[in-house]
């Protein structure tokens, strides 16, 4: 028997994902305990895609929510107007529909309603097919003492690295 020579990697090897990250929410991991993650499509206009391709977007203060109709929306994300756009340019802070499967939508809505979790956007990126995607996470907010503990561990690991580097 011959091995199949399709575009699949050998068993045990990871495939390299070649996607371009446009915007990343770096503070999310500090403010929230990140749980399950989901990849969602974004319903965008043409000028929004062009603005994203130029690498201009912020999702630091944004969040997502599922409404009563069972649709997910990205709130407060800023995609600035496309500079070469005409009168049909988009609003920078408009609501953007998220494209998810029904099962994922139900899971998110249930987690938010029953467990008091938040849907936090982690990054906007273009996948290998050139589609704009949003990585979402179900997250629970950290308390102040948890944040302090994380900061202590980070400071100690830095200090430990300095001490070992100076001695060694």
From TrEMBL:
Alphabetic keyword roster: Cytoplasm, RNA-binding
UniProt-listed InterPro entries: SmpB, SsrA-bd_prot, SsrA-bd_prot_CS
UniProt KW Protein biosynthesis keyword: no
GO molecular function, one term: RNA binding
Localization per record: Cytoplasm
Region forming the signal peptide: none
Domain of life of the source: Bacteria
PANTHER family per the UniProt record, alphabetical: SSRA-BINDING PROTEIN, TMRNA-BINDING COMPONENT OF TRANS-TRANSLATION TAGGING COMPLEX
Protein name: SsrA-binding protein
Organism: Methylocystis heyeri
